[in-house]
Specification:
The structure is a single chain. The chain has 293 residues and is mostly helical. It is built from 14 helices and four strands. It has helices spanning 7-13, 21-34, 40-66, 74-85, 93-105, 119-124, 128-136, 138-149, 156-176, 178-190, 200-203, 231-236, 245-251, 264-270; strands at 216-217, 259-260, 280-282, 289-291. The strands form two sheets. Strands 1-2 form a two-stranded parallel sheet. A two-stranded antiparallel sheet has the order 3-4. Helix 3 packs antiparallel against helix 4. 41% of the residues are buried.
Length: 293
């Protein structure tokens, strides 16, 4: 189920339309050029509906490449991750891969799994309005959390990632103007926070069913999320490429028989006792699972 030397070919051969790294990035380039001079209502609607959707798919591609699922060569994966990062204009691909590996290696361990909200977030966003705010601003919250609370020293790969994206942004501004640069930056904001395609970020680990840590999500957004809704399977086999996840589930259905089909965001925001951190936490001191109230 893991990647092979032919995995990168699958990213081209078995992906249609939005499911290719190149069209995703090039579509974003096309739209930010076409709509840079549009009226603000048309501009913002395009950014949210089109840019946010394609941008989120690019984030998921970055996710796969930072799991080294696209090719056996680590450098090839990192290069493609940075390439897909061009679509959202904020240097994040390599840093995401570093911190996301801790999510898998230290799953549910508070202080080491950066996917878990901090206690300050839990206290601030427990109300229904607060949780809508949390979901809408999930992009900056998700981006700043590891740097504010679990910061690691930058690596050469991250510096290269930063330089490539910065150069890309400068060129976009120079040749296409401020409208195109605004398009790509706003795309980064809407590609996770507040976008329907990003609901899986809530559905994956919030404790909707008492005692369950992870869930599978099946719905129309799985098409744009590259099967990331098969999240139990993904955690069992993190290097399994996205196109093999349905086959993995079919091969072992008894191990992944939970399907989350509830209206996720409504249940999340409407339940005053449920926060994204409402999962079973592993305390670093004794590794005993305890629920955080």
């Amino acid at each position: 189920a893991s990647c092979s030397h032919q995995s990168l070919h699958h990213y081209y051969r078995y992906c249609v339309g939005l499911h290719k790294p190149h069209p995703c990035v090039l579509h974003e380039c096309k739209y930010k050029f076409y709509f840079k001079d549009a009226s603000w209502p048309v501009f913002l609607l395009t950014v949210y509906v089109v840019g946010g959707m394609i941008g989120h798919t690019c984030h998921v591609l970055v996710h796969d490449f930072t799991h080294y699922s696209g090719h056996q060569n680590v450098l090839v994966n990192k290069a493609f991750a940075i390439f897909c990062n061009l679509a959202v204009g904020i240097p994040s691909a390599i840093s995401f891969g570093r911190y996301h590996s801790d999510h898998h290696n230290f799953f549910s361990e508070y202080g080491r799994d950066y996917d878990l909200p901090t206690m300050a977030e839990v206290r601030s966003f427990k109300s229904t309005i607060g949780k809508f705010f949390f979901f809408f601003f999930l992009t900056p919250i998700y981006a700043l959390r590891p740097f504010l609370f679990m910061h690691k020293k930058m690596t050469l790969d991250e510096i290269i990632n930063f330089a490539v994206i910065l150069c890309s942004d400068v060129l976009i501004y120079k040749f296409w103007g401020s409208g195109s640069l605004a398009y790509i930056i706003l795309t980064a904001f809407f590609s996770i926070g507040g976008h329907p395609a990003a609901i899986h970020t809530i559905a994956e680990h919030a404790e909707f069913v008492t005692g369950m840590e992870s869930y599978d999500y099946f719905g129309i957004w799985n098409f744009f999320n590259l099967n990331l809704g098969h999240h139990i399977e993904h955690h069992d086999f993190p290097t399994c490429p996205w196109y093999n996840l349905p086959a993995l589930r079919a091969a072992a259905p008894e191990g992944t028989n939970t399907c989350l089909i509830i209206p996720v965001i409504l249940k999340f925001c409407g339940n005053s006792s449920l926060m994204k951190i409402s999962v079973f936490l592993i305390e670093p001191s004794d590794f005993q699972k305890r629920k955080l109230n």
